[in-house]
Automatic annotation (TrEMBL):
This is Glycogen debranching protein. Keywords: Glycosidase, Hydrolase. Its EC number is 3.2.1.-. It comes from Klebsiella variicola. GO terms for molecular function: hydrolase activity, acting on glycosyl bonds. The keyword Ligase does not apply. The keyword Hydrolase applies.
Length: 78
């Protein structure tokens, strides 16, 4: 997210960091203990976190599941 970097004022905008939607119904991925996820304390961390950050997943709350069947696969593979 673009904006000012001014920690003294509480502003730590960092376009290199992927944001997670706080209203997401589903989150895909794990939250690893990785320094690339940190935005920086007094200086911004410019490393891109997109490859390791969990992602919000779009969920259609109005999907009609009637008639839906599991995939027919051999050996239980999906």
């Amino acid at each position: 997210m673009h904006g000012p970097w001014d920690p003294a004022q509480g502003h730590r905008f960092n376009p290199a960091k992927l944001l997670l939607d706080p209203c997401a119904y589903r989150v895909e991925g794990d939250l690893p203990d990785d320094e690339r996820l940190h935005g920086g304390m007094w200086e911004p961390d410019h490393r891109d976190s997109a490859a390791i950050a969990p992602k919000s997943q779009v969920v259609d709350l109005h999907y009609d599941w009637r008639g839906d069947k599991p995939p027919r696969t051999r050996g239980g593979k999906r």
